[in-house]
Amino acid sequence: QSHVQIYGVVDAGVLAEYGTPAGNTTGIGSGLASGSRLGFKGSEDLGSGLSAVFVLEGGYHVDTGAMGQGGLIFGRQAFVGLRGTFGTVTVGRQYSPYYQAIRDVADPFEDGMAGQATNLMAGNYRMDNSVVYATPRVAGWSAEVAYGAGEETDKLAVNDARKRQFSGMLSYTQGPLLVMLAHHHREDALLPDHVRHTALAARYTLGDVMGHVAVADNRGLAAERSRDVLLGVTWKNGPHRVLLSAIARNDRSAAQRDARQLGAGYLYGLSPRTDLYAAYGHIDNDNGAAFTVGNATDSGNGNAAVNLGLRHIF
Amino acid sequence: QSHVQIYGVVDAGVLAEYGTPAGNTTGIGSGLASGSRLGFKGSEDLGSGLSAVFVLEGGYHVDTGAMGQGGLIFGRQAFVGLRGTFGTVTVGRQYSPYYQAIRDVADPFEDGMAGQATNLMAGNYRMDNSVVYATPRVAGWSAEVAYGAGEETDKLAVNDARKRQFSGMLSYTQGPLLVMLAHHHREDALLPDHVRHTALAARYTLGDVMGHVAVADNRGLAAERSRDVLLGVTWKNGPHRVLLSAIARNDRSAAQRDARQLGAGYLYGLSPRTDLYAAYGHIDNDNGAAFTVGNATDSGNGNAAVNLGLRHIF
Amino acid sequence: QSHVQIYGVVDAGVLAEYGTPAGNTTGIGSGLASGSRLGFKGSEDLGSGLSAVFVLEGGYHVDTGAMGQGGLIFGRQAFVGLRGTFGTVTVGRQYSPYYQAIRDVADPFEDGMAGQATNLMAGNYRMDNSVVYATPRVAGWSAEVAYGAGEETDKLAVNDARKRQFSGMLSYTQGPLLVMLAHHHREDALLPDHVRHTALAARYTLGDVMGHVAVADNRGLAAERSRDVLLGVTWKNGPHRVLLSAIARNDRSAAQRDARQLGAGYLYGLSPRTDLYAAYGHIDNDNGAAFTVGNATDSGNGNAAVNLGLRHIF
Fold this sequence. Notes:
Three copies of one chain form a homotrimer. The first copy, chain A, is mainly β. The first copy, chain A, has one helix spanning about 95-105, and strands spanning about 5-20, 25-30, 35-45, 50-60, 75-85, 85-95, 125-135, 140-150, 165-175, 175-185, 195-205, 210-220, 225-235, 240-250, 260-270, 275-285, 305-314. Chain A has a 16-stranded antiparallel barrel with strand order 1-3-4-5-6-7-8-9-10-11-12-13-14-15-16-17. In chain A, strand 3 (about 35-45) and strand 4 (about 50-60) form a beta hairpin. The longest helix of chain A has 10 residues, at about 95-105. Chain A is globular and about 60 Å long.
């Protein structure tokens, strides 16, 4: 008991979606603001500044009781490693360093609710079979690199499909400023090709207001290429929190599948651990682009959505 | 750790069944008296009489290690909500108000062991995507209403099968008496029709003895209609507990598929948290009725069964 | 919270395999030294020397977040029972008494890492639907017997495939010596035949060194018969631990599919709960024998493997 800490999120609410294949729909959703989760974590002091650390965190759907992440018991995060003066080395299923630039720096919505950045922008969320090294922070600088082995140890060669990934970020913070540069490289499962994302994100705090700005360059298969620009604002005052963001995706391939998203959110803190929230997100798709307004749990079905919910952190 | 409480039940025993398609069988079963479960729950005081509450509770089979409820991690209960002077509002996968009338009032077996009422009577156990409002108790009166959204937010319209449900109960208690009136309405998944159940259940405590009585009216599809009458007794004395119940199901359709069940159970409390139990249930089926004697976890295969087991609550 | 204790293992590392169908492979593996697991256990003092006990323990893959044991929530162990002066009786999914002789006495690797005994020898790990009785230890003697019911209570007779198992062990310990005799009997699922294993294992501690010796006789279907002989050494000194074992399998059937395994391992204890480990295992297969070098979680794909990892116990 003393070696493990239990934590989690229970988040549920009403989800209204507009412009879905089934028209406009309304229902109950789980994890709109933050994915509902249950986690177990711990650390052990090994002396000489060294610690062992682990996290086991699984997602679930509070509306149906089902496991998240397609049926993985610890599908959100699972890793073990060592932390010391040299930094931290961890092994398991882990968030990519790239994702930190999107969730923690660029997106006022922290990758949740209808206005979340990943409706348009690549998230590169998690890497199976990964080794992550994070440096300590020195004079405001820190970095993190990750390598994801492509399941080479599978019994059958045909399952060797999820190929290697590399991800890294470089971060600098000074006073109110945080800047992060991130890159993610994923080998394609079938083609001798790969997908690359590069993002530069910054946020700046001025009193109650935090400004966010990000640019991402995406290079896909077969010369697909696009660029995203995000501008956002977080305003906090007492229990009130307002989130605004605008994202433009510029498709630089011949198809010109551009898109623009506007997102607005409001959270009322009943306590530091419990929020009521409301959010709206809307996407304009050009030339057959098919981006959808999702939330922290679901990728969404329509081009606009309203979220009303309750998030409790334990 | 301080924000979450772990609790559960481990229940296992010997299950003998009679009159099954495979003849008479004997084996090891899980959760005969109470479904084996592991749960996480918590509440947070938000001030002004308001609290946030959550429950995450999953079933499992102690005999095989498998997940319960067909593979749901929190398939028994999963909800989050707010409790205040106005009552409690919760969202998630929750027991129907109707089920409370059966389990908590009508059935001496509390919906477990071979004599359980739901062998014959409808349980209407759980509602996915549900919002439940429970009033506070005022002068002995309380009520609960639930609405279950029909998964309208599914990506594919063809999955929009589990239609809406409504469920409610009204309860009155005074001294030794508890009376509950409950109704459950479920839209059919395919037909423009619905299933309705109405139950009136009461229990009365006199010294060591509690008497139970219940009547349920069931209206199914295509003019199916039936009525159930239950009489039961619970006798408690020190570590001993004896349960008896008799149920008659009167099929009011042309097929006349009536059935009668007799159930008897005995629990010996090794402690308030640990019981040894024995139970017997027997059903007489008329005109091809196919009711089976189950238990808290399994719906059963035969028309009679014996349970011998150990239930530990933690 | 006070009634349940949470415990577990997070184990991850690099797994290199040689001579697999896909050639030589390298990747990240979970649970090489000990299967990664999360468990919940507890006991309740019932007075008069009697206690209720339970264990719920599930495996998982830290490299992918997936559930272990093919998708069982408590696939490692799940049982409830009573412990008293008479011994312990438990019901559920449990390790066979036979497996204790292999893991706890015979194998210096304790059934983990590339050198583990079960690469060649039968493990008879777990028994579903089982009742286990363990005697108390008297004058150095103890015994354990297990009966596994063959899922007779399944709804369909065709699923009644996993037939009954019987398993038992007799153990004697005096000072530095521990001897265990074990037998396991499994009815075949289809044929009116059964598989039987008998093992005699001993270990002897002399200062920093523990010597291991075991002989197993295996009788399979259709007159298959083989014999295994194991010799092993465990050397412990401060944080260092060296494991060595050699196993010869003598196939006494006409096919003469003999095999020999050599295993070597080293663990460095960063603390009593956290180890760095390295291991190597190699198998020589004769006449088409197809034994593979596995680890605590995977049965392996090649005839040799290297493990490098970190195991943290909480």
